[in-house]
Amino acid sequence: MKKRISIKKLTASLFAGTILAVTCAAPPVHAEELPYDTYNYTYWEDIALTPAAYVPVGTVTGATVGTDGFSEPQDLCVAPDGLIYVADTKNNRIVVLNETMTETVRVIDSFDRDGEQDGFDAPYGVCVSENMQLYIADSNHKRVVVLTPEGEFVKIIDNPQSEILEEGFDFVPLKVTVDYADRVYVIAKNAFEGILVFESDGQFTGYFGTIDVKITLWEKFWKRLASKEERAKQQLYIPTEFTGIDIDDDGFVYASNIDSDGVQGVRRLNPRGEDVIQKGENENLGGDLVVGSYGTYAGPSEFTDVTYRGKGIYSLLDRKRGRIFTYDREGNLLYIFGGLGTQEGTFNTPIAIEAVNDQILVLDAYNNSIVRFGETEYGSLINDAVGLRYDGDETEAIAKWQQVLKLDENNELANTGIGKAYLTAGENRTAMKYLELGRNRKYYSVAWKRYRNELLIAHINVIMTVVIVLIAVCLLYTKVLKKKIGRGRRTKAKEGGLA
Question: Residues 155-158: contacts with CB within 8 Å, 24+ apart?
């Protein structure tokens, strides 16, 4: 049985520093003022309290940006030019905010299509491509609408046709994203076979990144014994739907999903749709490791969205407990923050996540708001250290990790980061010290093997001399022993002859 989460509020003051927010500088925030717990997991999967990596710095609503209130918004997107697009779903519109999220730039609720006015019906997803085209998952109209950022009509993607689609397939797009080649990736309702992919001309080319569901032998056994009615009531063994989607700088697709086992709630899909994501030491990308067994908030994390933040860093939004989990390229869990509640900085129904500059934005569908989180010094140091390692600047990374240890002396990730940096620099003995503190068996083993080889190479002359001496001694001893044995035999032979 898994343990129930039980995390006490931090009582010590956090060295939060001044947060350079997009809109304004927030004052220092202390741990006891935070409306959520901040923690990570040790190598032994125990909860370890940490300083806060991010703190709430403001909330955005329709009223604060000079427009009508949002109504059950379902998605948001940061465009290449820095503007923020919000899919205001129940209001059937797209609201465009300025970079500082202080005012509305424009509202797109209709468009001219070949001389006729057209509009949206429950737009669930929104995305702006690198080529500055606006893609809207117009769900109830069963289409993806493509416009210019100003709202001028470009094209419609709808009614996919293919032999691989089930007869009567109902295309209801929920989330959409676009890669550098203008290929369109769509998460559609009840599309369990995977993400739908369309070429730039709108032609459907197939499914992408299907998640296989494994059935245990026990489940197969009982399914055989069950009656037709019982089988009808049983859970269908179908692949899991994706819930959120984003694309990194190399064109790889990050896709979140709800994993009932709590092991892997995100994938990084290469151009062939294969999952190539790296996992950390515990091989878990499922969010919380310690969960309760009973109650509303029991069970594994349920990721509803993912955002790629650059330098191999990505964040996942958990709707179960309102947590935000951030990982690096190697699958290491960097930090956890956020929570459900009614206080500033908590959510009721977290539905989408984005990152802009040094802030993280979370869209709350029930509260009709965007909650902004600013980076603390602790969070900034971790982000910078991971980014420096990603760029290959290990020396600077060590300095950042050492500063992290000043704020959180038991941070295993910092010790591991320093150890990896020394390992890359060839200082294997020092690397072993920090990797042991970081409980990283994989890289400690690598450092030990390299250090062992160093010792062998450094003392090869002594070793070879000792080996040669030992061989010479053995040969000499053998020769002396043979002579002694020969004399003994001759003596016995003479004694036998005299007798």
Answer: 155/202, 156/113, 156/202, 157/184, 157/186, 157/198, 157/202
Q: For residues 194 and 207, what is the distance between their CA atoms, to the nearest angstrom?
A: 5
Residues 6+ apart with CB under 8 A from 379: 52, 53, 54, 335
* E strand map for 270-318: 303-310, 313-318
DSSP 209-224: -PPP-PPPHHHHHHHH
Closest alpha carbon to 376 in 21, 82, 8? 21
Cα distances from 304 to residues 256, 318, 353, in angstroms, run: 7, 6, 9
Q: How many CB atoms lie within 10 A of CB 299?
A: 17
Determine how β-strand 54-60 pairs with β-strand 47-49.
unpaired
Which residue in the block uniquely carries the two structure tokens 């036998």? 496
CA 302 to chain centre: 13
Spatial distance between the Cα atoms of 187 and 205, rounded to a whole number of angstroms: 14
pLDDT at 455 (0 to 100): 84
Contacts of 24 (CB under 8 A, 6+ apart): 57, 58
CA atoms in the 13 A half-sphere facing the CB of 424:
17
Q: How many CA atoms lie within 13 A of 398 on its CB side?
A: 14
Beta pairing, strands 19-20 & 184-188: unpaired
Exposure class string for 430-469: b at 16+ Cβ within 10 A, else e: bbbbbbbbbebeebbebbbebbeeeeeeeeeeeeeeeeee
Q: What is the pLDDT of residues 202-213, one digit of tens each?
A: 999 999 998 765
Q: What sign does the dihedral 409-412-413-418 (CA atoms) show?
A: positive
Q: Say what the pTM is.
A: 0.84
d(CA 377, CA 51): 10
Q: In the chain, what are the helix, strand and coil shares in percent, each to the nearest 5? A: 25, 30, 45
pLDDT in tens, 249-301: 999 999 999 998 899 999 999 999 999 999 988 889 999 998 877 777 889 99
The helix-helix angle for 460-498 and 441-458 (nearest 10°) equals: 70
Distance CA 374, CA 368 (A): 20
The C-alpha atoms of residue 187 and residue 75 are separated, in whole angstroms, by 13
Helix (H) or strand (E) holding 356: strand 350-356
Q: Are 336 and 330 in contact (CB under 8 A)?
A: no
Element (DSSP H or E) covering residue 55: strand 54-60
User: Nearest 5°: CA angle at 48, between 43 and 53?
Assistant: 110
